[in-house]
Amino acid sequence: MGSGAEGEKWGIAEVVGQIEATRAYTGFAPANGQLFWHWEAFATNRGDIAKLITKQRYTDRALPPPSPWLATEKTTAKMPMAANFRVKAPVTEAKENDDEKPAASALWRIGWDAEAGVSEAVRWWSVQVGTKTSKDKDGSEWEWQTERVVPGSQNWVRFESIDGIDAVAVRAVDKVGELGKVRVLERVSETSKKKK
Q: Most buried residue, 46, 60, 108, 112, by CB count within 10 Å?
């Protein structure tokens, strides 16, 4: 896979193995990512490595760290918040026994509008899912995970299932990686519905 000064000793399997090794290391200073010595191999997809690692190791989009020093007047326009959430349940289809069940390919769809801001300022929408780790009345603790990063022109995401998801948080990300204000759609429990 190498060329020039980098030599020919690093094969694709070795690079993939190094990614796994850094992810598995939990010692004194665990790694939060990987730094590759020679990016040309990925840029030119040498040995099909770009395809391999995006299918096996980097399967989800990730947000780059913010780079506020790159901001200009055009990139600092006010970012909109997500608003007017819409939840569409899977389409059901009649089976032979006439029981309605979700179609095998049906997905949940959550959409939103861009509110009070400049839509062109949004490069990405970051979509996180939250799970309550404590069900106490006095206040729940949450665990959040980035589930999707979608282009700014796309104001929806799909989920195969919403089981185990207690809330969805959406926020805009501008061209230099700065995050906008968050808007949260929280699931209403059956107990809360009955109290009303």
A: 112
- Span 28-48, average pLDDT: 78
The DSSP secondary-structure symbol of 16 reads: H
Q: What's the CA gap between 17 and 23, in Å, rounded? A: 10
Look at residue 195 and tell me if it is in a domain.
Answer: no
Q: Is the pTM of this model over 0.90?
A: no
Q: Any idea what the CATH number is for the domain that residue 105 is in?
A: 2.60.40.10
Question: Domains in the chain: how many in total?
Answer: 2
- The C-alpha torsion from 17 through 20 and 22 to 27, rounded to 10°, is -120
pLDDT of residue 25: 80
Any domain includes 61: no
